[in-house]
Specification:
11-stranded mixed beta sheet, 27% helix, 6-stranded mixed beta sheet, globular, 15 helices
């Protein structure tokens, strides 16, 4: 029998409060999660193509790290629970102070659909394939719906507490949600923010095709709950956002004076104030003086499908007009606006256009890539692309997944052909060995990124675990950070091998079981993908160097690395064989890499048609004009259509 949500609510609230309290106590104790800067992005997309028009001129100032200590907007990839912990803690190394009480506006549109599988459609030259969620996303979302609404409420409660902690005293919080879950979440919001701090229940009507049924009325609206943290908040809605009805237009338009205003005396007994009118071809547009909580804003498609924002390229369910109304009403220029379910980046894009500062976050690699391209297209100010600095550190510290992840490492080890150490030999269950050899095996966790720090830890274990010097250490990972290929190169002579755990392993385990997979030897562990570039050619011209940079190949060793159905793996194999560079979704160049922070000073990506008419391919070579140097290090980074990142370094 299904559990009653009403009966479960006290436990949901109690456990949510306890989890939030543990998180905040750990922050105050000095134990914190940091943000790792993957890129300092200085938007400068390729617009001319090779040798057409002016070459990008990269000034010295573009290589300044951290914008001179000034504020930098942030795009964060990772679980928002961990991202918010990092924001609350601050990080002196990156110049990020604690954001506690400093955020002026938070808008979130969290997903909820217990039947969703969160697949992403990717168009390749050989056809469209459906990319299943990454393992990190599976642990973040797909496993979330085990108990349906109850699981969702457990998930959202501590996150709402952290968001309230980030808000300033004059800050506002908007939660956008639909009828499936809205009023259960309102109970949590009342508990966290206080029932008296509910400012409005806003109804957003899509003005689009209704979803109809013979058994219920058409569903054509979402709900947006608007809460404050305190009584004195920023609030100045634009009265012109609220046009009058046609009947009001006919009734009161005749009373407008020469300035387009209707006197209050015409509204005796009504709640309206002065109405502004504008003469439009002998007609009138009349605007109420009282903004309403019922908003009719057009959306290109009904809620639940993929639409297009005004930029014409980026899939979203949130029209810019909706976010513009919220951001204008509840923030001032220069204020900080956050969206912790970033999606396609509409909140940040509108905040940038309106002169606000912003932070946005998403656990999905495809979403993070879409946002990064969108911001570059928009020519936003330089921003940081960051991830959770070390998923191993406190990742899901008190979460129920920890025990299961520990068990999973033993399963992966067995499928690889290794044996775990006994608890007496090694307390860390992620380590094992291949019987009859001097090979050490380390299995990384599915809820964190395998980073350069992970490889360093494996090398240290190889030298000292159990007092031995092992011949080799094999690292098995699920999700890989941007710097992993660089780390592999650094430790290539240290006896380290890094392999990819099949992304569909969890699905295979649920369908076939561990013993059958062992018996059939059905699991293959593959090497990472890698990028190949031609030697960089530098030509000195007066006080400048002209750098010719070109990609040569992209090697994706096996479609088994990608969570695809079998028919889509065949399409991928065709592209790998005939047109491998078409798998590059985005690539960028740092012409003066310092070995620490990648400064993305030139970018090209699919859908950028300002330099060609081919939305399915990047340009794969460019010429940059940079200040002259006798010696320089060029770093090239590429992200493929599935979100895998590769990085190579060329010294001149």
């Amino acid at each position: 029998m299904a559990k009653s949500i009403i009966e479960e609510l006290p436990r949901i609230v109690s456990e949510g409060r306890a989890e939030a309290r543990r998180i905040l106590e750990r922050l105050s104790s000095g134990t914190s999660i940091g943000l790792q800067t993957n890129e300092l992005v200085l938007p400068r997309k390729d617009v001319s193509g090779l040798f057409r028009g002016d070459m990008p001129n990269i000034p010295n100032s573009s290589n300044d790290a951290g914008n001179g200590g000034q504020w930098m907007n942030r795009l964060i990839y990772g679980d928002n629970l961990l991202a918010m912990q990092a924001l609350l803690a601050g990080d002196p190394q990156t110049g990020l102070p604690s954001m506690r009480g400093k955020v002026d506006l938070i808008y979130i549109d969290p997903p909820f659909d217990s039947k969703a599988d969160y697949r992403t459609n990717i168009t390749l030259p050989s056809g469209t394939v459906q990319h299943k969620p990454t393992v990190l996303e599976q642990f973040g979302y797909v496993d979330l719906w085990e108990e349906g609404t109850i699981s969702y409420l457990k998930y959202i409660y501590p996150r709402l507490v952290l968001m309230k902690d980030l808000l300033s005293d004059r800050g506002s919080f908007y939660l956008h949600i639909d009828w499936h879950i809205a009023h259960y979440v309102k109970i949590l919001l009342d508990d966290i923010f206080g029932k008296d701090n509910l400012r409005n229940e806003i109804i957003w009507c899509y003005k689009t095709t209704l979803r109809t049924s013979p058994s219920f009325y058409g569903r054509d609206h979402d709900t947006i709950f608007f809460y404050s943290k305190a009584s004195n908040i920023t609030f100045h809605p634009d009265r012109n956002d609220f046009p009058a009805s046609e009947s009001t237009l006919k009734r009161w338009g005749k009373y407008a004076d020469e300035n387009g205003f209707v006197s209050n005396k015409h509204f005796a007994g009504s709640n309206s104030t002065i109405i502004n009118t504008e003469d439009e071809s002998k007609g009138f547009s009349i605007y109420y003086g009282i903004p309403r909580d019922w908003w009719e804003i057009s959306s290109n498609v009904s809620k639940g499908n993929t639409g297009e924002v005004s930029a014409g390229k980026y899939a979203t369910q949130k029209p810019e007009a909706l976010l513009e109304r919220i951001i204008k009403a509840s923030s001032n220029e220069g204020d900080i606006v956050c969206d912790f379910f970033g999606g396609s980046g509409t909140t940040a894009a509108v905040a940038e256009r309106l002169g606000r500062r912003w932070i946005t976050c998403d656990i999905g690699k495809p979403a993070s890539l879409v946002m990064r391209k969108r911001f570059i297209d928009q020519k936003v100010k330089p921003f940081l692309y960051q991830s959770i600095g070390d998923y191993q550190k406190e990742a899901f510290h008190n979460n129920k997944l920890v025990k299961r992840v520990g068990d999973l490492s033993q399963v992966v080890m067995g499928l690889y052909g290794a044996l775990p150490f006994t608890e007496e030999q090694c307390a860390d269950r992620n380590f094992g060995y291949v019987k009859g050899t001097r090979t050490l095996v380390m299995v990384d966790s599915p809820n964190r990124l395998t980073t350069a720090a992970t490889i360093r830890r494996a090398v240290e274990a190889k030298a000292s675990l159990l007092g031995d010097d092992w011949d080799k250490v094999v690292v098995l990972g699920w999700n890989f950070a941007f710097d992993i290929s660089q780390a592999i190169q650094k430790y290539q002579d240290a006896g380290v091998e890094v392999l990819v755990i099949p992304p569909d392993l969890l699905d295979k385990l649920s369908k076939k079981g561990y013993q059958k997979l062992i018996r059939d030897k059905a699991i293959r562990f593959s090497s990472l993908q890698y990028l190949v570039a031609r030697p960089v050619v530098s030509t000195t011209m007066d006080e400048h160097d002209e750098l010719d940079i070109a990609l040569e190949n992209y090697v994706l060793l096996s479609p088994d690395n990608i969570p695809l159905d079998d028919k889509d793996k065949a399409k991928l194999q065709q592209v790998m064989d005939s047109d491998p560079l078409s798998l590059i979704e985005y690539w960028s160049i740092d012409p003066d890499y310092d070995g620490i922070t990648f400064r993305s000073t030139w970018q090209d990506y699919r859908e950028n048609t300002d330099n060609d008419n081919d939305p399915l391919h990047c340009v794969y070579q460019t010429r940059l004009r940079v200040p002259h140097k006798e010696h320089r290090t060029v770093c090239i980074k590429a992200v493929d259509v599935f979100g895998f990142e590769s990085q190579i370094i060329k010294k001149i």
